[in-house]
Amino acid sequence: MKKKSIKFRIIILALLLVFSAVNAEKSMSIYDFKVTTIDNREISMSEYKGKVLLIVNVASECGFTPQYEGLEKLYQTYKSQGFEVLGFPSNQFASQEPGSDEKIKFFCQGTYDVHFDMFSKIDVNGENAEPLYKYLKREQGGILWMDSIKWNFTKFLVDREGNIVDRYAPSTKPQSIKKDIEKLLKK
Length: 187
Hints:
Layout: H1 2-26, E1 34-36, E2 42-44, E3 52-58, H2 67-78, E4 83-89, H3 101-112, E5 117-118, H4 131-139, E6 155-158, E7 164-168, H5 178-185
Parallel strand pairs: 3-4, 4-5
Antiparallel strand pairs: 1-2, 3-6, 6-7
């Protein structure tokens, strides 16, 4: 009888631990993460509280690279209303972002006159994925419940409260997101 009681208690304790871990993950916010800027400065995502964000994994040698121009145009159009574009370079797709952070910054500024915030090169998928991206994918899964990022220039739209409200495919052009951004800026 005592063995059954001990096993029962262990099972209950294990279930409580699992439930606590799941609830802790669900109570996390985008503002709980720290990220590293392209200039190697660690910042808290809480610096973006109250702003509408478009978070994008980017690459310099991709067929979608010209989207930098559209992303910069969105940023320039809406930054005064509390909008930010956050670019996270990744080399995980056909090695299309092979350069150092310094080279990436030089390319973005020199080729597309990028002024929105850029961050250090990261992994967006796999074991070494940036924790922020693990969170984004968990909050806004991809097609057919497959959460992984499929290619460069996948975009996540975040409202002023830090909720991930939409995920856009790499082929979605920045200008086609304008209405969604405007709707969130009016709130």
